[in-house]
Amino acid sequence: MPKHVDVFGWIRILCHGNARCLTDQVIRMDSFLYFLVGGICIGVIYALIALGYTLVYGIIKLINFAHGEFYMVGAYAGLAVYTLLPPELSLFVSIPAILLAAGIAGALIAVLCERVAYRPIRSNGRLVALLTAIGVSFFLQNLFALVKNGNPLSYGGAVEDLCQQSIQIGGSGIKTVKFAFIIITAALMLVLWYVVMRTRFGRAMRATSQDMDAARLMGIDVDSVTMRTFALGGFFAGVAGALIGAQSVVEPMMGFMPGLIAFVAAVVGGIGSIPGAVLGGLLIGVLQQMVIWAGIPSGYKDVMAFLLLIVVLLIRPQGILGKPEIEKV
C-alpha cells in the first residue's frame, strides 16, 4: 500500500523553515550594523596613528616603525597620570588630563627619538633610517618591559566603569567609549587641518614636503619643521594609546600590531596624503570587523588587512589617494 503523504505537515515544515530563514536574515543584518559601527570606531584609531606615519614620511621620507611605540608610551603616561590624580576628581577633569598627558608624552618621546636617533643619520640613506627606526622600536619595547616587569596594567576605578558602559546597536552592545574615539579623532583632525592649511608652520611643512632644499634656501628651518612634525604625529599616537589603554590593558607590546596595521592603512590610503591616512584607517577597521561578521575566525582579521595592502599595491602602487612620485634625472 502506498504511504500516506502528510501535505499539511510539509507545508508547516516549509513555512517554519522560511520563517526561520527570515529571522536569521534579520539577525544577520542587525549584526552587520553592529560590526560596521565597531569597524568605524576602531578605524578612526588606526587613522589617528596613521597620520603620524604619513606626516613624517611627507616631510623626510622616513618610515618610522617606532611610531607604534609612541602610542604605547602615551598609554603608559595616561595611566601614570590617572594613578596620581585624586580618586574623588570628576571624570570630566581627569579624562582630559589623561589624554593631554598621553599626547604630550607621545610628542616628547617622538621629539627625543628624532633628535637623538634620526637626525644624525638623516643623510645616510633611507635603508639606514629604516633600520634605525626598527632598532628604536625594539629599544622602547624592552625599556618599558622594566615597568612592573612588563605585566599588563589596567586603569580600574571610575574610568574602567565608564569604559564598560555600552549602547545597544544591532542587537549587541558597543562600548560607549568607542564613540568617543570618533569624536576625539574628528576634533584632532580638524585641528590638524587648521595647522597644515592655515598656519605659518603648516605652510613651512608643505614647502618642506615639496622640496626640502628649496625650502632651506627660502629661509625655512627644516630641522625645526621636522622636529615639530614628529611632535605632532607623536601627540596623535599618544592620545590613541590612552584611548585604547583605558578600555583594555597597558603593556610594552601593545603598540606593535596597531602600529603595523596603521602603517598598512597609511600605505593603502596613499602614504604622504593626510586624507589617505584617514581613508585607509577607516577601510581597514571596517574590513577587519566585516571578516568577523562573515564568520571567518577573528585571528584572520589582520591577515585581511595585509591582503588589502597587496591588492591595492598591485592595482594602484601609490595608494588610493596618493600621487605617483616623479624621479628627477
Q: What do you see in this structure?
A:
- The chain is mainly α and 329 residues long.
- It has a domain at 42-255.
- It has helices at 7-60, 67-84, 91-118, 126-144, 157-164, 176-198, 200-210, 212-217, 222-246, 256-269, 274-293, 301-315; strands at 166-169, 172-175.
- It has a two-stranded antiparallel ribbon.
- α2 packs across α10 and α3 (91-118) crosses α9.
Task: Describe the structure concisely for a colleague.
The protein is mainly α and 329 residues long. It is 73% helix and 2% strand.
The percentage of residues in β strands lies in under 5%
**Separate helix tally:** 12
Based on CA atoms alone, the radius of gyration comes out at: 24 Å
N to C succession of SSEs:
HHHHHEEHHHHHHH
pLDDT below 50 for ≥5 consecutive residues: which ranges?
1-15, 21-27
What is the average of the pLDDT values?
A: 86
Helix content: over 70%
